[in-house]
Amino acid sequence: xxxxxxxxxxxxxxxxxxxxxxxxxxxxxxxxxxxxxxxxxxxxxxxxxxxxxxxxxxxxxxxxxxxxxxxxxxxxxxxxxxxxxxxxxxxxxxxxxxxxxxxxxxxxxxxxxxxxxxxxxxxxxxxxxxxxxxxxxxxxxxxxxxxxxxxxxxxxxxxxxxxxxxxxxxxxxxxxxxxxxxxxxxxxxxxxxxxxxxxxxxxxxxxxxxxxxxxxxxxxxxxxxxxxxxxxxxxxxxxxxxxxxxxxxxxxxxxxxxxxxxxxxxxxxxxxxxxxxxxxxxxxxxxxxxxxxxxxxxxxxxxxxxxxxxxxxxxxxxxxxxxxx
Length: 325
Ligand code: NAP
Ligand code: F7E
Fold this sequence. Notes:
Blueprint: E1 3-7, H1 12-23, E2 27-32, E3 50-54, H2 60-70, E4 74-77, H3 84-89, H4 91-112, E5 117-123, H5 146-165, E6 169-174, E7 177-178, H6 187-199, E8 206-208, E9 214-215, E10 218-219, H7 220-231, E11 238-241, E12 247-248, H8 249-259, E13 268-270, H9 288-293, H10 302-321
Parallel strand pairs: 1-2, 1-4, 2-3, 4-5, 5-6, 6-11, 7-10, 8-13
Antiparallel strand pairs: 9-12
């Protein structure tokens, strides 16, 4: 039975990846950091099938000990300070967690067992002010936030350790991927939850920032499959994972509200506080390398994604109103 260690198992992607690996009969070890309250909401349904290990990306010894104790065959490094807006307010913490911690993990692998296969969660935010449209594995990086800068470091240190120490280290350059498990502060979930709240009469308005930003949005459940596929290849490599389509925040609002019989123009208000010091205006990827080498394809359309998220939030709020959660 193969064994995988997932950092960030309590996050959106960690929960979908843990499910996907359990279905493939993996032993799954989830690294969790200490907090004053347990934070297993996204993995509650599978938590009995996961082994947990305490660790923090900021603490090198905890990473080495986790690998020594559990002897994984594969490590998926999904943990990060992942919210772009927060990275402007906490740039040093973001650098420590999202950038330098990748080196901590790679060194831990090098020291304990260099045969472990490694996945690094890189991001389309590295393309930032895009040099070309669409973006692929060869597109130069121009990050526009401390988060994007930190991810560029994480990406290149993964490439560097692969080339320097012959590690099986791959980097997935994933474009935005969403789900009903997305954090409430990210724009898609903010919209689906906001529209559902308005439909149920709990709120009247939804405050957002830049409605003209365009993103290549896909479904997280599809994207974790690509992570696993990368580590099954004979040779490590880097892959862009995306839908190949781009839509504006405004379009997301339009679809989400109209699915509930509402007009977003009656409810969405623009609030300066949600604008960023530097914006990424347009992202759209080209996944032809992943299609060719990994045989990976997205299965969920933009419309299906928006509908899935809105319906999940309506159901969630209805359960809450009935006192069931
Ligand atoms: P997420 O929901 O924000 O989850 C982040 C995870 O990191 C959580 O489990 C969090 O633990 C953990 N974490 C944060 N700081 C930590 C630390 N110091 N030590 C240990 N764990 C720590 O993020 P996601 O959307 O699943 O994304 C997964 C990864 O993919 C991230 O690296 C993100 O930057 C990257 N990425 C995401 C997207 C996307 O669209 N979702 C696209 C490209 C790349 P707590 O639960 O304790 O906070
Ligand atoms: O913003 C605009 C905002 O925070 C998307 C992370 O998973 O994907 C994510 O980063 C766009 C931006 O995601 C609001 O200005 C407008 O242009 O949902 P987001 P992100 O910044 O693209 C990448 C690939 C990652 O790697 C990251 O980890 O939406 N926007 N109004 C807003 N954004 C937010 N959050 N809130 C608003 O009210």
